[in-house]
Amino acid sequence: MRNDPTQPDDPPRAGASQLCWLRLSAVAGLFVGLAFCAALPASAAAKSKPKARVTFGVEPASASGADGRPDLSFGVTPGAVLADYVAVLNYSSLPLSLQVYATDAIETPNGGFGLLPVGTRPTGVGAWISLPSRFATVHVPVESSKGPGQVVVPIVLRVPDSATPGDHAGGVVASLRTTGTNSSGQKIVLVQRVGTRVFVRVSGKLTPKLSLTDLHASYQGTLNPIGQGKAKVSYLVSNTGNVDVALDQSVSLSGLLGSKRQLALTEVPLLLPGASLHESVVVPGVWPEVFLHATVSAEPLAPVGTSVAGLEPVGAKASLWAIPWSLLGLVVLVLLAAFGTLRVRASRAARRLAGPTQLVNA
Questions:
Q1: Beta-carbon contacts of residue 97 (< 8 Å; ≥ 6 apart)
Q2: Of 177, 255, 246, 249, whose CA–CA distance to 212 is shortest?
Q3: Whether 221 contacts 324, CB under 8 Å
Q4: Alpha-carbon distance values, 281 to 236, 238, 245, 246, 251 (Å)
Q5: CB 174 within 8 A of CB 93
Q6: Helix, strand or coil for residue 218?
Q7: What is the predicted pLDDT for the residue at 334?
Q8: Are 306 and 71 in contact (CB under 8 A)?
Q9: pLDDT tens, position by position, 218-275
Q10: Same domain (yes/no): 163, 219
Q11: Which residues pair with 187 in a beta bridge?
Q12: Alpha-helical segments (H) within 88-236
């Protein structure tokens, strides 16, 4: 049977093939989409969940819990025995096992309250404080709607009969020790510490005293012949008395022509007895007046919450050269240029006075 020319066979075959291809593509896309969606939870599950934030603290306390005192402060006599409490607090959503112990205070490089490094045995207030052995490690519950989890730890302060008069400082510390590995597979130990301050004032004669030593001053000029340079002043300030002090310090520079430049330093909140600070200050905007005088003053103050009588400021002076080398170099160049110009003019004038040279034949 012959095919009707008005209804050719080729176009219907091409449409069926295209429809079949579209159906196969849709099915393949559906499988790919399902596979991708199925892979999403697996990928998310493969990622490790971030660890919960760990926050804990130590505060002075009564037998029932933290009592809001800023620190533990005692006025005692040699041989005294006192009892008190600290609360170890957990602000985290995980229970914590923390080590609790006492140690000595040290001065930080910037002036302030620090604690002995881990593993260093205390010989001062840290050795005077003891706590029951069962509280060497405490298990602190998680934070709840009522507040942070807490464990109250009793402490006893036993002041030696040989304790010297004046201020002594230490701290009661809670420490969290965790281990892990770094990117190189090496085992690392992380120790996090927080503490509450302990201040002990032993009765007897109080002698507040400061000293300023090792004062050095130098001047650094600028390439600008009419510009200002800067001076560097360094010194050592020491608490040579037996009481805690804060410090208010300033550095001033004065020149031969009457200029004066003064710079106030940031207040040092606490300088412990026997501690020293190496201070280094750069004073900008100093004119090079050939010879300068640097003056450093340190005024002791009573730390916040304390009282100290008989505080006296101390000071020290030093001299330094501040020669304006750029200006002098410019002056020398101008003089040399002027001298050279004058010589050239003098030489030309001498030639003009001598007149033309005539040759005479014999």
A1: 137, 138, 139, 140, 176
A2: 249
A3: yes
A4: 12, 17, 21, 19, 8
A5: no
A6: strand
A7: 82
A8: no
A9: 999 888 778 889 999 999 999 999 999 999 999 999 988 888 889 999 999 999 999 9
A10: no
A11: 181
A12: 125-128
- 225, two tokens: 């012949």
Count of structural domains, the chain: 2
pLDDT of residue 360: 54
Q: In 3-state terms, what secondary structure has residue 138?
A: strand
Cα–Cα distance, 296 to 252 (Å, whole number): 7
* Two tokens, residue 311: 């505080």
Question: What is the number of other CB atoms lying within 10 angstroms of the CB of residue 181?
Answer: 9
Q: Two tokens at 200?
A: 């002990």
**Contact residues for 213 (Cβ-Cβ < 8 A; gap 6+):** 235, 236, 238, 316
3 state DSSP class of 359: coil
Output 183 or 196, whichever has higher pLDDT.
196
C-beta atoms surrounding 57 within 10 Å:
16
pTM strictly above 0.85: no
**CATH number of the domain residue 173 falls in:** 2.60.40.2310
Tens digit of each residue's pLDDT (9 = 90 or more) over 26-83: 334 433 333 333 333 433 433 444 456 789 999 999 999 999 999 999 999 999 999 9
What are the E-state strand segments in 13-143?
56-62, 65-66, 72-76, 81-90, 96-107, 113-115, 129-130, 137-140
Q: Return phi, psi of residue 67, to 5°.
A: -115, 5
Q: 306, 241, 233, 239: which is closest to 265 by C-alpha?
A: 233
Spell out the SS3 assignment of 250-307.
EEEEEECCCCEEEEECCCEEEECCCCEEEEEEEEEEECCCEEEEEEEEEEEECCCCCC
Q: DSSP 3-state assignment of 245?
A: strand
- Identify the domain containing residue 312 by its residue range: 210-324
| 262 is a domain residue | yes
pLDDT at 32: 36
Residues 62 and 90 in one domain: yes
Count of Cβ atoms closer than 10 Å to residue 253 Cβ: 25
- End-to-end alpha-carbon separation of the chain, Å? 145
CATH number assigned to the domain comprising residue 240: 2.60.40.10
